[in-house]
Amino acid sequence: MAVPIEKLKWMYEMMYKIRWYEDRMVEAYGEGKSPVFNIGAGPVPGEMHLATGQEPAAVGICAHLTKYDTVSSPHRPHHHAIAKGIDLNKMTAEIFGKVTGLCKGKGGHMHLFDPNVKFSCGGIVGAGIPHALGAALAAKKKETDWVAVAFIGEGAANQGAFHESLNMAALWNLPLIVVVENNQYGISVRKEASTSIPSNDLRAEAYGIEGYNVKDNDPVEMYNVSEKAIERARAGKGPSIIEIETYRYLGHFQGDPELYREKSEVPYLREKDPIILLGRKLVEEYHLDVSEIKEMEKRAAKEVDEAYQFARDSEYPKPEAALEDLFI
Q1: Tens of pLDDT, residues 104-157
Q2: For the chain, which residues make up each domain, given as ranges?
Q3: I need a labelling partner for 54 at 20 to 30 A (CA). Which of 14, 72, 156, 175 fits?
Q4: Where is the Dehydrogenase E1 component domain (predicted)?
């Protein structure tokens, strides 16, 4: 299925923006944490889970979403948040723990929340699926064509929340789409060592719903598959599971020694980098001028750089404000 050129350009620029954002976060997060890794040091303390290499999962489906559709994300949330259109300045300030952040610096990297674009991040493995289920139920009760998307890692598909939520979504015919990002590892455990089936879309049959599989981290295929799932959901035909075979270029968290990975693994994967391949497609098949691609990259990088500067220039919350806005 041919993808409109404007959608392809949007996906390329968005993937580049996500990659630039994560690369900048590697730098910011690493400040002050060496020579001995100290998780609490530097301008961005705490754990940090980056999505470098997993961009197609986010852009392929978010290319079809509107501001009325809900997205929930796990502890590796930046690519989903950026593709959904979150305020990049406020998101970055939140990660830096600044008062100008989405939650005034109280949520941090794993608890991003922006009601303006209907995005939330549960942080705990599998926790976002029931949130998306609730949004899907609300969409049906309101008699709208809104959909809810829950992004999870493949390890979360072995959690009870996955099965309970999909059972309810199937039973009540809700517009829920669960996107399983199979990045090959649940922390340090290979998928085949923890899951008895080759891909989690096969589990759809158990609930009487649709299942789709996307190979080779392909953003175009993810776009096409997502279009089918979303059209079904908007038409009242119920939930779907999409599993995309993607790749985590970095460790489970920044500072992860990655002793479980082959040293040759990541360089090999980068030969199949989805951003490079999509850029090549735009030039060779859609005859886009290289200068236009460079302009998209420049625009994306500028927005990211400005967001990081905004976060660094913002103030930390005052200690006496710690309990503000916690109670309704």
Answers
A1: 998 899 999 999 999 999 877 788 999 999 999 999 999 999 999 999 999 999
A2: 1-28+56-253
A3: 175
A4: 47-320
Question: Could you read off the pLDDT of 176-200 as tens digits, one per residue?
Answer: 999 999 998 888 888 888 888 999 9
List of E strands, the chain: 70-73, 113-114, 119-121, 148-153, 176-182, 185-186, 189-190, 210-214, 240-245
CA 210 to CA 144: how far, in whole Å? 21
Name the DSSP class of 276.
Answer: H
Q: Which one, of 164, 115, 153, lies nearest residue 135 by Cα?
A: 115
Task: Give the global pTM.
Answer: 0.95
DSSP codes joined into one string, 138-164: HHHHTT----EEEEEEGGGGGSHHHHH
Supply the CATH classification number for the domain 1-28+56-253.
3.40.50.970
**Which residue from 41, 119, 50 is spatially nearest to 79, judged by alpha carbons?**
50
Q: Which amino acid is at 97?
A: G
